Amino acid sequence: MKIKKAIIPAGGYGTRFLPVTKAVPKELLPIVDKPMIQYIVEEARASGIELIILIVNHGKEAIEDHFDINYELEDILGKKGNHELLGLIEGLSDMIRIVSIRQKRPLGLGHAVLQAKHLIGDEPFAVILGDDIIDAQMPCLLQMAGVYEEYKRPVIAVQRVPREETSRYGIIKGRQTGKRVYTLDDVVEKPLPDKAPSTLAIIGRYILVPEIFDILERIPAGAGGELQLTDGLRELLGEKGLIGYEFEGDRYDGGDKLGFLFANIAYAMKRPEIKDKLLAYMKGFQ
Known about the structure:
Elements: E1 5-10, E2 30-31, E3 34-35, H1 36-46, E4 51-56, H2 61-66, H3 71-79, H4 83-94, E5 97-102, H5 109-114, H6 117-120, E6 125-128, E7 132-135, H7 140-151, E8 155-160, E9 170-178, E10 181-189, E11 200-208, H8 211-218, H9 229-240, E12 243-246, E13 250-253, H10 257-268, H11 272-283
Parallel strand pairs: 1-4, 1-6, 4-5, 8-12
Antiparallel strand pairs: 2-3, 6-11, 7-13, 8-11, 9-10, 10-12
Helix pairs in contact: 3-4, 8-9
């Protein structure tokens, strides 16, 4: 079955980027001239997704507005004859079907995913974190969809990280059973380096099945008193099995200040009109 629906949890407060995120959703911070979440939505569309379900909270209305029609702006651009910019703006509202659900209280990633249960139904679906930017020749989610089709099991994206950083991630325990593919035995949330079963970290891309909702409804709150998706994945592993896929591409943690800056530089270097001047500017810091 094809993956046609994706959940994008966007209910966090972006505290690592305060004070700017006091008024601007983290997901709308720009990578060059596009907000982070637009890169995510473009990846979803290129991977065959037809419906995006945004999980938002109070103050995130601007995310919905970004992908909505802006008649006044379109009229102004049209009258000025700026058809290039007009095309960019009109393309946003036509990009993909997007609906939003208000998460009244931020009670964890598992809780955010659970809010979309009534819209997912009985089909497999994707979860994409809005601050994990992945630059890949083939979209990461499309790579994962191929793995799901082959193995008929839920798939999570993984990436190797330095051992000293394992306490920042969920880490998988498993065995390699194919090219870039791992059959999982366990998932461990933020283990200390000497306790980590591997250095393969869970990254913000998941292809899940509807059984995860029943699991999330019955398991207790975990770390921080929140409903943790990792706890749900551990239960799902026992019921349906779980595949880890070491995706091809470059990942940038847009929720981290340094990762955000790296992403801006990397994407700016892909722009011919920016690249040379940026390189010349950076050489001045050597």
